[in-house]
Write a structure and sequence with these properties.
The chain is of the alpha+beta class and 97 residues long. It has one domain. The protein is 69% helix and 14% strand. The chain contains two helices and two strands. The protein has a two-stranded antiparallel ribbon with strand order 1-2. Strand 1 and strand 2 form a beta hairpin.
Length: 97
């Protein structure tokens, strides 16, 4: 069954259908709302005339940047674990043979 998700940005509610297999749709919405609010607060002090679309773009860029950093860190961790596992396997093979 599809999920109906409501997100409120700039005082305006928006409704979206989330795919049934999407387990964390509300969490995704919450991340966006939080980031938009953070930028809106920050920019209201630094650039009072910033448009809503500019705030949304900044939020999207920040979330995309965080996602890329997490992917990079995951790749690095995966490489490290793979390398160490291979080293341990070789050491075990030497000791067992």
């Amino acid at each position: 069954m599809e999920q109906l998700i409501t997100i409120e940005l700039f005082g305006q509610p928006y409704k979206f259908k989330a795919a049934p297999e999407t387990e964390n749709a509300q969490e995704v919405v919450d991340v966006l709302v939080k980031e938009v609010g953070r930028i809106q607060d920050q920019q209201s002090k630094e650039a009072p005339g910033i448009t809503q679309i500019a705030i949304l773009i900044l939020a999207a860029l920040n979330i995309a940047n965080e996602n890329m950093e997490l992917k990079k860190n995951y790749f690095t961790l995966h490489e490290t674990v793979s390398r160490r596992s291979e080293t341990l396997k070789r050491l075990l093979d030497v000791e067992l043979n």
